[in-house]
Design a protein that fits this description.
The complex is a heterotrimer. Chain A is of the alpha/beta class. Chain A has 19 helices and 19 strands. Chain A folds into three domains: about 1-40, no CATH class; about 50-120 and about 295-435, Rossmann fold; about 120-290, 3-Layer(aba) Sandwich (Dimethylsulfoxide Reductase, domain 2), CATH 3.40.228.10. Chain A is globular, with a radius of gyration of 23 Å. The N and C termini of chain B lie far apart (about 35 Å). The relative contact order of chain B is 0.27. The chains are: A alpha/beta, B alpha/beta, C mainly beta. Chains in contact: A-B, A-C, B-C. Chain B: It comes from Methanolobus profundi.
Chain lengths: ~425, ~130, ~270
Amino acid sequence: MVYKNIICPVCGGSCDDVQVNLDKKNGTIDVQNACKMGNAKFQEVVSHHRILKPTIRENGKVKDVSWDEALEMAADILVNSKKPFFFLGSETSCEAQEVGLHIAEYLGGLADSNATICHGPTVMGIQESGMVGATAGQAKNRADMIVYWGVNALESMPRHMSRYGVFPRGYWTKRGRFDRTMVTVDPRVTPTAAASDLHVQLNPNSDYELLSAMFTILNGKEPHPSVEEITGVPISVMKQTVEMMKESNFVAIYVGLGVSSSYGKHRNIEIALNFVKEMNNYTKCNIGALRGHCNVAGFNQLASYLYGYPFGLDFTKGYPRYNPGETTCVDLLREKDVDAAFVMSADLMDHIPAESAQYLADIPMICLDIAPCPSTTAAEVVLPGVIDAMECDGTFYRLDNVPVYFEPFTDSPFSETKSNEDTLKQLFAKVKAKKEA
Amino acid sequence: MEALLNTGSTIDEGRLAKGGSKYTDDYTKECAVCWMCAEDFTSLGCPEKVAVISRDRKYSVALTTKVTEAMRSGQVFIPRSIWANVVVEPDTFSTGSPRYKGSPVFVEPTDDEILSAEELVTKMYMGGE
Amino acid sequence: MADVILKPIGNFDLTVEAEVVTPDNFAGKSADDIGKLLVWQGPEELPLADFFSVEGNGGSSAEDTTIIIDGEIPRVKRIGQEMTGGKVLIKGSAGMHVGSGMLGGEIIVEGDAESWAGMEMKGGSIHIKGDTKDHVGCAYRGSWKGMSGGRITIDGNAVSQVGGGLVGGEIIIGGSVKHFCGIRISGGLIVVKGNAVRTVGAEMTGGTIVVGGCIERFTPGFEMVDVESDLKFNDIECPGEYKKFTGDYAIPQKGKGTLYVSCNNNECL
């Protein structure tokens, strides 16, 4: 049967135009409109490597167990932990993340999500200076200058350029690509850079200096000449870029991890945001982050409205606190400051530095995921995941923080659970029962 | 050779990771790769494999080399993956986010075997279980 | 003066938050009572005596009380938080947030200190004889105003964001700093006797920064105005010749700060 307008549960683009043809009898799925990454994830519905049975590791050996046994053991680990840590990954719904946050609060643990190892500094930068933002649709219809700063959109969000960024015909950009100027700022000649009108190839870790110099130019002053050597970009190119921006009708800047993850971190974002604010004295200008996962923005929204902070939540004192560098995933694990972990819908082991990963492998870990990966290998308890937007309904927040409600086209393969939210609710009930006993 | 390490996504890394294929040879072939420019490749003696070593020399990972014009001299790139993160600096400047971009590393020719993602996690992180 | 001696004896596998360890809280209490004060380890509140042996009673007031911590406590956070008087002497390394929000009195750390020492402090003095990490005397996340009074002296090195948002008071670093020293300051004084890596004085709108060593990567929005020699700020002396810059012109705010950079170590500027 053919299903239309399915939401893609992969990157922050959360594309809403995917068409699938699921043949349950033959176990095949045909996917239209999705990119390579999206297509690969849709194949998971019928894949052979899908995790279908809960497992636990006993004396170094992995064995299949019933759902009830796995949930019991998971609850035991969490209840016996002095300071549990919850990594509520972003390839699942806000509804599931919400239950995870409540368990963390109930146990006085800590909760974090993919933002911490992704656009966390961007969120911190926004906290420092506020943001002039726009929805993806606004930028599509109005923007005649696109800046991809520290992001390789073609490979990290493959349909961004065709859906929102560069190619689509918008209301005021009727000729699509021909009505837009595209600039990429990246130390590497990425496919995105190759497709741009101007590629500013700066030195690694010099984003702050480049932004600061462009800001100085915008304020009518001459930047210190040493900036040319630091950034590897001539001042004349900086001036040209600023002029191009001023002369455009609407500038959309998209930042990636190149800005938020290189040296400077949230300060890079902060000055970029201030630059954008000032640029609005001359023309319309806005900034947005290209977010890596379908619901990474969702966790920030959810945690902010429930607990006041976007990520790195510390419930140890009974009320939420937040201090990146102290209450965030990589730091907690590096400093060995938690003693059990619950990892949901994210391959955490894969994406954190060795020192943190080693400690994560040392402590008891519960992992909820759909396919085998380093995190499930190192976990004590593995709970099979349900694929959001394919097998259950829920909510994602798109890259521009627009909530997207998704509906499934098939059912959960498990009789024991309908969704990750359901699994977590069952776990929470067991945790409560044990804690109160 | 000293270099600045950049990590990030490639389309096939994304395709394989999202498709749950982290334990396939294709994934190792796509991600256990160190990109560099021809000049650096030559100065290292055109090795088939290199060890990328963290600044404190505590961690090292063997990777195949790939020569590309996308890189400048003194900069190397590894697709975002478990291999890259072995040598990413864990210090976060009190921001929670490690140095995925611009970590200083050493790059040296090596004959070490390239581990799969599964071998890497069991041998390096889980103490050889 | 009454001395209270705390010796670390507990299990610090998980970090401990001990904001009760201040002369204000110890004043007027016997050693037994002090041992019953509660500290946090994870979500649990446990008596101080579980982690430290307590010797000696508190004085009659905070000013009369000296707390001596006889050992290394890099995993104990918030010692001396919001203290108003008296003295804390840590004979080893201290954890995060030492002297955070401090109003008066004196803290001496003989070893290193973790990040966030003297966050938003308003008075008193902190002397760290070893190194420290990020956010010394800095503003809390999202806040625009950091330390507003008192003095922080660090004999060793600091890392990033020294004195972020400083509005008053003094920070003197004997060693070197890395990134964003004096970010967004609008008052006060930061003296770095060693080197700095980059973005010194970024976004500053007031206050003074002196760098005696070399700045590896200069902040682009500064303009040189003068050369001055043998600087003196009350009792703080900075001998030698300095190039005087104003900035940061990267931000449109009216006020501008002053950045002095040693002539000898920065010939290329």
